[in-house]
Amino acid sequence: MLKLERQKVVLQPTGQGVGSRARFNPGTVREGNTIHMLFRAVNGDISQKDTYISEIGYARLDLSGNLQQVAETPLLSPSLPQEVRGCEDPRIVWFEGRYCIFYTAYDGVTARVAIATTRDFAHVEKLGVIGLPVWDKDAFIFPERVAGKIAYLHRIEPNIQLLFVESLSELLDTGGPAWQGHLRNLAADTVMRPAFTWEAKKIGAGAPPIATPDGWVLIYHGVDQNLVYRAGAALLDRENPRRVLARLPYPILEPEEAFEREGDVPNVVFPEGLVVVGETLQVYYGAADKVIGLATVELPELIAELKKHRI
Questions:
Q1: Pairing outcome for strands 124-130 and 136-141
Q2: Does residue 5 contact residue 61 with C-beta atoms inside 8 Å?
Q3: What is the C-alpha to C-alpha distance for residues 300 and 124, in angstroms, rounded to an integer?
């Protein structure tokens, strides 16, 4: 079995600044020799729900995952009615000349997907919230168009679904024909379902996938009946990512270290950021809803292992 190799805790709360009590669930994207990281930041106590409201902070790393900067103010804070209880769990995609940020908008009742964009991680524009009347999250677009369309992966529990649209504005239009057709045919648009004991309760996409000649490498999370979160891997067809080419039957990362087993939510590893450096795949993940860890694997080794488990 292939397992990710843990490297270090990259970011943790210090008792002050953005995310003074918790810094976790990071999205990442590489720009040259810089890794931009957005992370879920909490200043309140989880035992006091009125104070436990998430913002999204910014950090900058080098290509070895060493912390270079943490911004003094959050990049995204609750301002829309759908996110009054928090902006959570960001994913980042460089797409057609700008960084697209997909995050969870939480109003205390329902989780929905929100979209924002930036070019410099200093100025950000919120585009809006995908207003489905259901719990929907773990979402992003692929980093390039597939067959000329934007491929949008999301999770209506317990499965992972894929929707194709022409534009981000069409993605936000849940009353339009693309979304209405998708919802009518949700089963047909489902890419992955829970298949193994370690992910029996639900699965969800992790980070935007990595394009390789063999297909899209997708790192995702699975949750078992005891609410333990683990990370898995799958390979999607490059031209038709609704087709799963291969999928590992076992997790590649699970809560084992103390910082993954003990925190605000115990027994959680939650991958949301991928960066390729040479042939090394860096996986940035939230641990126990408290800190951010880094684990790595050689990308050719992961693909070779996936090919042993073709579907």
A1: unpaired
A2: no
A3: 36
Q: Are strands 210-212 and 202-205 parallel, antiparallel or unpaired?
A: unpaired
Tokens of 78: 């609750």
pLDDT in tens, 265-305: 999 999 999 999 999 999 999 999 999 999 999 999 999 99
Neighbour tally for 278: CB within 10 Å:
8
Q: Would you state the structure tokens that stand for residue 248, as one six-digit string? A: 């590992």
Residue 172 CA to residue 91 CA, distance in Å, equals 17
Q: DSSP of 179-222, one letter per residue?
A: HHHHHHTTTTTEEE---SGGGSSEEEE-SPPEEETTEEEEEEEE
Q: Which residue segments constitute the domains of the chain, with CATH numbers given?
A: 5-307 (2.115.10.20)
Q: Rounded distance, CA 38 to CA 64, Å?
A: 17
3-state secondary structure of 165: strand
Helix (H, G, I), strand (E, B), or coil: what is residue 169?
helix
DSSP 13: -
pTM of the model: 0.97
Q: Given a cut of 90, is residue 50 above it in pLDDT?
A: no
Tell me the torsion sign for CA atoms 269, 271, 272, 275.
Answer: positive
- Pairwise CA distance, residues 25 & 54, whole Å: 11
Find the length of the chain. 311
**The tokens 């070895």 sit on which residue?**
64
Residue 185 CA: distances (Å) to CA of 11, 160, 189, 190, 240? 41, 13, 6, 9, 17
Cα–Cα dist 208/25, whole Å: 14
- Tell me, what amino acid is at 241? P
